[in-house]
Amino acid sequence: MNIVACVKQVPDTEAAIKVKPDGSGIEEAGIKWVMNPYDEFGVEEALKLKEKFGGDVTIVSVGPARALETIRTALAMGADKGIHINDPALEGADAYNIAAALAAAIKGIPHDIIFCGQRAIDDDAGQVGSVLAEFLGIPQVTFVTKLDVEGASIKVIRPIEGAQLLIQSSLPCVVTAQKGLNEPRYASLPGIMKAKKKPVDVKDAAGLGVTVAPKAKIAKTLPPPARPPGKIICGEEPAEKARELAKLLREEAKVI
Amino acid sequence: MELSKFSVGNEGREVFWNAENFEGLLFAFTAIAMAIFAYGIYRRWQMWTAIGKPEVRNDQIKERIKLLLKNGLFQIKTFRDIYPGIMHGLIFFGFIGLMFGAAFDATEFHVGEPYGFPFLIGKFYLVFSFLMEVLGLFVLAGVFMALDRRYITKPERLGYKGEPDNTPDDAIVLLLLGGIILTGFVIEALRIHVTNPPWEVWSFVGYTLAKAFAGVDNNTARIIHKVMWWTHTFMALGFIAYIPYSRLVHMITTPANHFMASLKPVGNIEPIRDFETAESFGAGQLEDFTWKQVFDSDACTRCGRCQDGCPAYLSGKALSPKKVVQDLKTYWLERAPLIAAAKKAAGKAAEGAAPEMPAATKAMVGEVIDLHELWACTNCMYCMEHCSSSIEHVPKIVNMRQYKVLTEADFAPELQLTYRNMENNSNPWGVGSHLRADWAKELGVKTLAEDPNVEYLFYVGCSGSFDERGKKVSVAFAKILQTAGVSFGILGTEEGCCGDSAMRGGNEYLSQTLMQTNIEVMNGYGVKKIICTCPHGYNTLKKDYPHFGGNYEVYHHTEIIANLIAAGKISLKKPVDGMFTYHDSCFLGRYNNIYDQPRKILAAVPGMKLAEMDRKLDKSFCCGAGGARMWMEEHDGERINNMRTDQAIDVNATNIAVACPFCLTMLTDGIKAREKEEKMASLDIAEVVWRAMGLEEEKPSADVCAPTE
Ligand SMILES: Cc1cc2nc3c(=O)[nH]c(=O)nc-3n(C[C@H](O)[C@H](O)[C@H](O)COP(=O)(O)OP(=O)(O)OC[C@H]3O[C@@H](n4cnc5c(N)ncnc54)[C@H](O)[C@@H]3O)c2cc1C
Ligand code: SF4
Ligand code: SF4
Questions:
Q1: Residue having the nearest C-alpha atom to atom 4 of ligand 2
Q2: Residue ranges covered by each domain of chain B
Q3: Complex-level ipTM
């Protein structure tokens, strides 16, 4: 079974995000870059399937030079090889173009299952996986928390509000990983050392035959508005405080 | 030989009385015993040298001889535990004395008498006789104490979880020892009964015992004497032959282990140097240990001192340092003969052919040593400090953890998270590294980037930078330094995690990365002196950083504060209330011998009432947070921090003074768990001192609903 896992390099969740003064994006200095946490679930699941059924795990990432570090992290976990799509034209591209580039790269290699994270934690979009499946013309199952291979198909669990869906899909198929799918492994040291020598193909848009033409553009990045200070309701009696709270919620916050 | 040559002023006895024509037989039996002994030692030697990587333990001979004399001959480590120390001392010194006595007898017989200068006569003989009696009684008393401990009183330490771990040779050895002495006394009594010289009143045991044979006629007495003499001789020779095959081997291995004890700083873990080409890291099999680490377990006497203060064991976890050593020994006894044989076979085979080693049939880490045992260790160093055989448990435990973490990447998920956090944000909680210096925002503390020309770097550490309680300690200490006019700076956001938890949790790769990052920054500023408020940072900066080119004078804040008080740079004038107790941090006490400074500081605080807990100083009870345990769930047994809190409650303490942010967290949690937060608090010494300096009005916690004017 040959598996592809798409991984995106994103700022660490704890990193201090500063918007550039001109609103053209965020300041990258001092940011610690990590693998998108949902993509870790995808990589882990890919490795588990490989351990069970054999085959190769290929890591694909679109990103600048620094993204190679994230590919190596996945290789250290146990993946076999990487494809690094590095093209300035794809910097900040929309989901459509990212997915087009990914699709072009993936078309050229055997793929039974393609893992994506359910969304990337930087811009929280959650589209690339779906668009990718469309480009490849294969089914997609999203927000997956459990996956079983049965012959030439997979059965997955997708939680929805108050229930779970058991979905069956033929292969090949795009699966987007949700928290709960597994516990991503910690890379062993021999794994880290071996990862340094595993092959990573570097490609650009032209090499993949992709023309980058954004359909959507981020016009401006703005910091979130400063949070107004909280309010503490004082008073002697709980009933009195509750009355005041109800009044404020209705008149000031206008939520009830 | 005539008895008459002994007269008053010429007292003595006929050596080997009543033992005609014995020499041939005695020599033959002695030769057999010695041969059995020599063969045993030869076999053992092959086993000692069969397994393990090279390590130098014969450098600095002078230091090593000192250790051998101190702990081997004078039994200092053994005496640190008084009752068992005396028990062993009685047997040890008694036996050594008696062996000299036997040697005197033999010299008298083979040299003194034949060459005409007998020396076991006169006053010397009387004193000698008297001494021999006393020493014999010593050994007997020791043997009885030992029998009592092992078979009647049965203290917990001579077992595991309530089950005694006695082996048959424990009994055999004690019976041999007791038997040799008892038969010795009987032989003497019979000789005195028959020959009856008046001065033998000096041989007071034999003399008294002789009265018991009053009704026995001389011929019968001579026969019994002969039988007893041979029994005595066989037991003594048997004892010698038995040494390499029983627990008696410790007569060789234990002093050897004292001689070969580590001369490195306490708690030293040898860094892994080759990450690039090695296939496996840490110790997954005995072969991955050094020969000395393997030899260690053959020096263990199962005395249980280590177990007696092990916080993991005492809180009901699977780990017992004694059991770890014994389990490794059992495994070594299984493996070593096979490997020794394979080496021998290879030696006979063609030159240059790599010997084919017998494959291990089980996982050392996971099967021989259970993972619950491995991960329960807090690296508190109690076991090593108190081991009467100088066994080094902690490095072995860390090496086995390295195997699980680095080679297999199979360890607790919460620790994996901790390591990721350290990788991404250089602190165990994963708080954004840009927030590291926020605690100092309002204090006007400069970073070295702003002013590198300061005397001390205050290395704040992760707790001091991110933990709410820890930050208060950093603030208090910074204010103390400012008040005293000490020139210091911090690294601010350039500071990183010290690497101690990563190292002791087996992640040597991560710890070295963290250490090297800090060293680069510190060396970049030309840092020379460093102060730490966290004993973990203190210990690792002082002892581990030199491995990687970080050479600094490192101080703990209690050392600095004690000096400031002594030099009159700060004055403590505001009295404190309540009853204090001081909890010794392992990494300060046992690791760095800092016991006095914290106590001196507390004693300098006006109104200080200080009660010591039972487990204190070098016998202090760990808070439960060392050895990366701070970051791990504690599923098994009792919580160690709660037990320590109970010990403080037992001495009616209302304040537990600490000098470590981990202890602070653990004991604060313990106080909460015991629902004592109304009555008790845990405080760092820096906080106690800053309060006592009385320079800051204490703010009552802000009442948000107070009427504002
Ligand atoms: C439910 C939903 C709500 C949305 N809401 C909004 C909204 O409110 N406002 C708005 O403007 N837009 C919204 N979008 C659209 C979204 O903002 C854009 O499509 C966005 O640019 C997608 O890019 P992403 O980087 O976030 O990738 P995502 O689609 O979030 O990434 C998902 C996965 O795709 C893979 N992947 C992504 N990038 C790469 C890469 N460079 N290399 C390799 N693999 C990669 C990874 O596996 C990743 O985990 C929404 C989309 C959805 C589905
Ligand atoms: S270091 Fe402490 S916790 Fe670890 S085995 Fe020794 S005594 Fe027990
Ligand atoms: S390891 Fe040391 S302290 Fe522990 S039982 Fe063995 S000899 Fe005694």
A1: B377
A2: 59-259, 286-407, 413-693
A3: 0.88
